[in-house]
Design goal:
The chain is built from 25 helices and 21 strands. It is an alpha/beta fold. The longest helix is centred in the first third of the chain and has 32 residues, at 212-243. Bound molecules: adenosine-5'-diphosphate and magnesium ion.
Length: 695
């Protein structure tokens, strides 16, 4: 059948058939239109393929080469290795799972494109690369300047015979035989202003672009539509929220809150006072709050959230306070319970490592409202936890949670107020646009007397000197963190592990010092004990993995060493740095970088040393990630966008926002173009839900 329409089922497209159609269907791809919106994940061409002798560690790369050898390697962990070679050299590709499958996949002499992060372990390698089997002439096509689309792959698609190559054939067939055009609802003046090409061309050519410039033009157009859809969701959530009325009315702050403030060992900064007022006003308002509290690491967000929880308790409602790690949840609980108890407010802690009987007791207390404030981890979202009168949900380090998790906790109340906190600030302008439905409170400034952390980076050869520096600092009464990227030595990559370093150093240079170690594989009870000892000074040096990244608060720690700092992203380095510089003493951070160092890693480190401003770091992080990297909601707190790029598409974000404002203003006018567009956005929004908090 040559007469292909956009709504034609994929099953009837030449080369598809029932089995493939079913596999497509399970990926939400049912019609021709669906497949046209299934975009390539990457493109192969001369500019994207790197010769093997030009590879750099810690950089993602695509290489094209032939299989020289392949087979299972035995060692501490069995793995499948493929040696891929091109004219300039060879690299090893490794898999630790699915050995049987890989065994069947490769034949000597076959041509593959492999994409992934390059690492080094006795030679260059890529662990678990993405693979694309190429026809023998593709490498010539690539070298002749052709651009070849590579589609996202899953095991299931592969099993049904839908390799990237066969998807490529199907889309190509569709585009050649389609008898109708995609309807472009974007008003012409918007297209002109933002220099956007028409939708049909954009979609057709995003699959088979003639050149890189054309591809970028397609991407921009598709990005605009994506952003418009995303922003529309926020607009709509805002509108819905403003229509919802809370059942409960708050009394003005009373004695409890006054006593709470008086009992604090410090006075709130003006920045903290300002955001506290904003939050309290929201709690008192008739509509539910959806507020993001942001502020640099160490600025003192917790006390503000706890004050809000106390206000909620004063009004006979309950508050849930969720943190991403047990360590952090416990720290919050331990720190604040005494203050709250003094006010007659009861608190409990719920984490997965509680004994079943304890969990039951806490859950029952919560359901019967004998608990006012429940602190905890992800454990709070489980079904057995319910609240009698949940008034406020607080989510600390919100970017560490998925959308689903946040909304499950939120759903345990009847339109409770929502306060999410983050120290990974989203660049201000972006935050305001992307989260149109979120109100944002920013704590400006740090508590008085804080000195910026002095930050330097050194090559790995300086390790011994740096250890001596640690010893000196500790002898002067300070405490230090040393951060490692791994728990145990790995066969994957040559990295320092906390386990080995602990064994080495406690028998070596740190022999006479009190040293502790924490990482994710240490039992929670033991870990808490060690952290407790670190906090009260019985441990001088804490060797740790990034489990201490968020929240840990020990104001006496003034020194941090980060091993393999080249492997961490800017935002993460900044988070780690936030563990020190928490008092009026001068703190120092030494970032140790191991060779070989990529240009990107060097730039990152230099930038990290040049500023302690979290907002500037967030901006730079966005720029440095550069194009091609996806943003995961979880990692960055930023929305998951497939094609749009938050760093370079700001003009599009602005244009999309203006268009939306216009659409809403003109809603009453019978303007055909606008009405149809709005209608389409509504339909699209109904079929998906991206929500930060509730619905
Ligand atoms: P973050 O914003 O990173 O979550 P925290 O809430 O953990 O920061 O606060 C960091 C440290 O600063 C804590 O030890 C806290 O007790 C302290 N702190 C908070 N507010 C003040 C203040 N106004 N004056 C002095 N210290 C404060
Ligand atoms: Mg915090």
């Amino acid at each position: 059948m040559a007469d292909l329409k956009l709504d034609s089922p994929l099953q009837y497209v030449k080369g598809v058939g029932p089995r493939k159609a079913e596999a497509f269907g399970r990926h939400g791809l049912n019609t021709v239109r669906d497949l046209l919106f299934y975009f390539p994940r990457q493109y192969l061409d001369r500019t994207s393929v790197v010769p093997i002798n030009k590879l750099q560690v810690d950089q993602p790369a695509t290489i094209i080469g032939t299989v020289r050898a392949h087979g299972v390697l035995h060692g501490r962990r069995r793995r499948y290795e493929v040696i891929l070679e091109d004219d300039t050299g060879a690299i090893s590709l490794l898999w630790f799972a699915g050995l049987r499958y890989w065994e069947r996949t490769f034949k000597k002499g076959q041509l593959f494109a492999a994409t992934g992060m390059v690492s080094y372990f006795r030679g260059y390698q890529i662990v678990h690369p993405d693979l694309e089997r190429l026809e023998d002439d593709s490498s010539q096509m690539v070298h002749a300047g052709r651009i070849i689309p590579v589609y996202p792959q899953t095991a299931e698609l592969n099993k049904a015979g839908l390799s990237s190559k066969s998807i490529r054939r199907i889309t190509s067939f569709i585009l050649a035989n389609l008898t109708e055009q995609l309807d472009d609802l974007l008003p012409a003046e918007v297209r002109e202003q933002s220099r956007l090409i028409d939708l049909h061309t954009a979609i057709a050519k995003i699959h088979f672009p003639d050149n890189r410039e054309q591809l970028e033009a397609c991407r921009r157009r598709v990005a605009f539509d994506e952003l418009l859809g995303f922003l529309y969701l926020a607009f709509r959530r805002r509108a819905r929220k403003d229509q919802t009325v809370k059942k409960h009315k708050y009394q003005p702050p009373g004695d409890k809150l006054r006593t709470f403030k008086e009992s604090l060992p410090f006075e709130l900064t003006s920045g903290q006072k300002k955001v506290t007022r904003e939050i309290f006003d929201d709690l008192r308002s008739a509509h539910p709050m959806t507020r993001m509290l942001q502020g640099d690491v160490g600025c003192g967000k917790t006390v503000v959230a706890v004050a809000a929880a106390a206000y909620v308790a004063e009004n006979k409602l309950q508050a849930a306070f969720m943190a991403p790690t047990e360590i952090l949840a416990e720290q919050h609980f331990r720190t604040w319970e005494p203050f709250l108890n003094d006010l007659g407010i009861t608190c409990e802690l719920l984490t997965s490592s509680l004994k079943p009987g304890e969990k039951k007791r806490v859950a029952e207390a919560c359901a019967g409202q004998t608990v006012d404030i429940l602190f905890g981890t992800h454990a709070l979202i489980y079904d057995y936890v319910s609240f009698k009168k949940l008034g406020l949900v607080i989510i600390d380090e919100q970017h560490r949670f998925g959308v689903e998790q946040r909304s499950r906790l939120h759903a345990k109340g009847d339109n409770p107020d929502l306060l999410v906190m983050t120290a990974t600030p989203i660049p201000r302008t972006l935050a305001l646009t992307l989260y149109g439905d979120l109100d944002i409170s920013t704590i400006e400034g740090l508590p008085p007397g804080r000195k910026p952390v002095r930050t330097v980076w050194r090559p790995h050869e300086a390790r011994d000197k740096v250890h001596q520096f640690v010893i000196d600092e500790v002898k002067k009464g300070g405490q230090a963190y040393i951060i490692y990227p791994l728990v145990e030595k790995s066969e994957l990559i040559e990295l320092e592990s906390v386990d080995d370093a602990y064994a080495e150093l406690t028998q070596g240079v740190f022999r006479d010092l009190k040293v502790g170690m924490v990482h994710g594989r240490i039992r929670p009870s033991e870990r808490d004990e060690i952290l407790g000892h670190f906090r009260d000074g019985r441990i001088q040096i804490l060797m740790a993995t990034t489990v201490v990244e968020v929240g840990i608060d020990n104001p006496n720690a003034t020194l941090m060493v980060i091993e393999h700092a080249e492997r961490f992203g800017l935002a993460q380095l900044h988070q780690l740095r936030g563990r020190i510089g928490r008092s009026d003493k001068q703190s120092t951070l030494v970032a140790l970088a191991h060779p070989p160092l990529s240009d990107m890693a060097r730039r990152r480190l230099e930038y990290f040393c040049s500023t302690t401003d979290g907002f500037a770091i967030a901006e730079a992080d966005l720029e440095l990630r550069g194009p091609g990297e996806m943003f995961g909601v979880k990692q960055s707190g930023l929305p998951e966008l497939k094609v749009a790029r938050l760093s370079s598409d700001r003009d599009l974000i602005e244009a999309a926002r203006n268009l939306l404002t216009l659409l809403h203003k003109d809603n009453s006018k019978p303007d055909q173009v606008h009405r149809r567009l709005l209608k389409q956005l509504q339909l699209q929004a109904d079929s998906r839900s991206v929500a930060l908090g509730g619905g």
